[in-house]
């Protein structure tokens, strides 16, 4: 594990502002600092548990990753980047990463707890969201992405599986595994096919406007319950993305204002996509999104 080999002496790290978890002093976290509660879920590389930091009583989610599995999948570098980026972001719609520590076999991430769980499960349950709900979520994510882009962080993997729901019903971007901190245009292929913009499918240079495309795909999926370029075969999804084969089915009924917004985001020429600050002024957002960013049902 890269973290372990490069920082043997200092076997933990947290950002200065971890005052929500501890009393504000610099500390070395160990498993003994936490009471471990129920499992919250299972990911590819380990488990996530509800936990309470003993001194402050602060409730967190503790993600436990097995070094052997990280090594096997060669994602140590990706994890390092995720930790580095996420620990420096402070936004109401971005899940906080308070710090990390590790032992011989595992890496532990101390995360903000999102009590209402995964967004994609909500979407599965509801099949699709109301326009009010979709617009509230899209506006809150646009604000979070404006914040990220202002810090030269491109997320690159916006999709329902990477979104959690906070205590008030607010969305939290939870996974920065594919994000990059960059001033340059990038050429790496990453993310899940359905949410990839043409320039990433075709492996040409891309920039922060990839996140506008993915947010457009997400907005479509919120309203229709399926992503816009879905197809049985990967090659068909690929072709539909590259051709921007965007169709709006007659059911469920979606307003023309919502379709207009989606059409302005899913534009092949990345320079012509609706900028995120303009998205916040779009009539569909203005008329439907809760200004608080919180959807209460
Ligand atoms: P992951 O390894 O990030 O895919 O997490 C596995 C599962 O644990 C997720 O699908 C969630 O159900 C749950 N989970 C992860 N992080 C949190 C969190 N911060 N708050 C609540 N549940 C979480």
TrEMBL record:
It is found in: Cytoplasm, Cytoskeleton, Spindle pole; Nucleus membrane. The keyword Nucleotide-binding applies. PROSITE patterns: PROTEIN_KINASE_ATP, PROTEIN_KINASE_DOM, PROTEIN_KINASE_ST. Keywords: ATP-binding, Cytoplasm, Cytoskeleton, Kinase, Membrane, Nucleotide-binding, Nucleus, Phosphoprotein, Serine/threonine-protein kinase, Transferase. The active site is at 157 (proton acceptor). There is a cross-link at residue 159 (Glycyl lysine isopeptide (Lys-Gly) (interchain with G-Cter in SUMO2)). It catalyses: L-threonyl-[protein] + ATP = O-phospho-L-threonyl-[protein] + ADP + H(+); L-seryl-[protein] + ATP = O-phospho-L-seryl-[protein] + ADP + H(+). InterPro entries: Aur-like (IPR030616), Kinase-like_dom_sf (IPR011009), Prot_kinase_dom (IPR000719), Protein_kinase_ATP_BS (IPR017441), Ser/Thr_kinase_AS (IPR008271). ATP binds at residues 44, 63, 112-114, 161-162, 175. Residues 14-24 have a biased composition (Basic and acidic residues). Coiled coil: none annotated. GO terms for molecular function: ATP binding; histone H3S10 kinase activity. Residues 1-12 have a biased composition (Polar residues). The keyword Nucleotide-binding applies. Pfam families: Pkinase. Residues 1-24 are annotated as: Disordered. Its main location: cytoplasm. Its EC number is 2.7.11.1. One of its GO terms (cellular component) is nuclear membrane. Residues 34-285 form the Protein kinase domain. It is an enzyme of class 2 (transferase). CDD domains: STKc_Aurora. Belongs to the protein kinase superfamily. Ser/Thr protein kinase family. Aurora subfamily. This is Aurora kinase.
């Amino acid at each position: 594990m890269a973290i372990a080999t490069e920082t043997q002496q200092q076997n933990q790290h947290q950002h200065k502002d971890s005052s929500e978890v501890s009393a504000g002093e610099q500390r070395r976290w160990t498993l003994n600092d936490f009471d471990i509660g129920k499992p919250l879920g299972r990911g590819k590389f380990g488990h996530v548990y509800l936990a309470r930091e003993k001194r402050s009583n602060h409730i967190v989610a503790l993600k436990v990753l097995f070094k052997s599995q990280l090594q096997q999948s060669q994602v140590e570098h990706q994890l390092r980047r995720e930790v580095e980026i996420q620990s420096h972001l402070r936004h109401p719609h971005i899940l906080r990463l308070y710090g990390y520590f590790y032992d011989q076999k595992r890496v532990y991430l101390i995360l903000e707890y999102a009590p209402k769980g995964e967004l994609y499960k909500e979407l599965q349950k509801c099949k699709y969201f109301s326009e009010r709900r979709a617009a509230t979520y899209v506006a809150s994510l646009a604000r979070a992405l404006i914040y990220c882009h202002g810090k030269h962080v491109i997320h690159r993997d916006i999709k329902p599986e990477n979104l959690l729901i906070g205590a008030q019903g607010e969305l939290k971007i939870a996974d920065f595994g594919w994000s990059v901190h960059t001033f340059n245009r990038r050429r790496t292929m990453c993310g899940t096919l359905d949410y990839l913009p043409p320039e990433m499918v075709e492996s040409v240079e891309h920039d922060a406007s990839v996140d506008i495309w993915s947010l457009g795909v997400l907005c479509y999926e919120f309203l229709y319950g399926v992503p816009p370029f879905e197809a049985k075969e990967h090659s068909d999804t690929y072709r539909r993305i590259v051709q921007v084969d965007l169709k709006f089915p007659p059911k469920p009924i979606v307003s023309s204002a919502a379709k207009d917004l989606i059409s302005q985001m899913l534009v092949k020429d990345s320079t012509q996509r609706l900028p995120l600050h303009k998205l916040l002024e779009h009539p569909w957002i203005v008329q439907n999104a809760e200004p608080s960013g919180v959807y209460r049902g």
